[in-house]
Amino acid sequence: MKPGIKDLLWMAAGALVLLICMLGVFHFQEDQNPAAQLAMRARRVDLVGRMQLDLASASEAEKSAVLAITDQDSQALADQARAASARVEKERHELAGLLAVGGTQGERELSAQFATAFAEFQRVDDELLTLAVKNTNVKAYALTFGPVATAVKEMNAALDRLVAANTDSPTATKVTLFALAAETSSLRLQTLLPPHIAEEDDKKMDALEAVMATEDAQVRKSLDGLAALPNLGKDPELTNAVTRYAEFSRLKTQVLALSRENTNVRSLSISLNEKRRVMLVCQDALDALHKAILAEPIAGTTYGPPAKPR
What is the mean pLDDT of the chain? Predict the structure, then answer.
């Protein structure tokens, strides 16, 4: 009995469906080739590992830039930090491309989480490194323990010589009292500068400067008192002391201005707080992504620790 046209159509349709299914299976098997999958996974794992290393390099260079004591060293280390960060960004883009065609939804979500955290990482780093290379606190300390200390020392030495030269003068007691008051207040001023440089809070800086203003007024009052005594107005030692105090005052103004910028204190605070927090978020995202990629099932492979031999 010959098949009818309807039967032939059904047979042709069945053969076509079977062919399509076979092609689909072959295509699926080709896509799921274990060797190709392992190679793709290895590329992604390698990229994540490089990102972790470059992220650590960027963080290490940033911390070194914050702690460096010269502008040249700070700038060189800041450049290294930015270069390492740029490598992470390049690797992130490359990984995102691989995940778009061969990753899981979970991996793509983890990649997006890292991208968000890394954008914040870069923002914090930019602010931090811009501050670190200025080294205003380091420069303020250098002035305080260098030229400022020298000016105070030379002023007080001139006052000591002035007192010694007037021990037999009728105004010896007044000379001694005025000189001692000037020396004491100048030393107090000098000792107030380092706490100001180290201070982070503006209000506390204001309080320190208020005390400085009181001590400065005492020094000037004492020097004016010496100048008003008979035969001391044009004394070379008093002139020297006044000149050295004027130099001290000029340098003090520079120190306070540098201290107010507070770039080293601010950059260190950012490094220990904001930067540390965002760094941990980035590291956690990369670690989770690394584990997710390794956990992908691939036919013909085994996972987990090796079985214990019997």
Answer: 88
Q: Which helix (H) or strand (E) holds 116?
A: helix 105-132
Nearby residues of 125 by Cβ (< 8 Å), 6 or more positions away: 58, 62, 81, 82, 85, 275
Q: Are residues 203 and 276 in the same domain?
A: no
Structural domain for 243, as ranges: 136-261
205 falls within a domain: yes
C-alpha–C-alpha distance, residues 110 and 30, integer Å: 28
Q: What CATH number has the domain bearing residue 236?
A: 1.20.120
Residues 252 and 275 in one domain: no
- Any domain includes 35: no
pLDDT of residue 266: 94
Query: What's the whole-model pTM score?
Result: 0.73
Cα 149 to Cα 60: distance, rounded to the nearest angstrom: 35
In a domain, 21, yes or no: no
Let me know how long the chain is: 310
Q: Name which of 130, 271, 254 is nearest 197 in CA terms.
A: 254
Q: Which residue has the tokens 């930019």?
A: 126
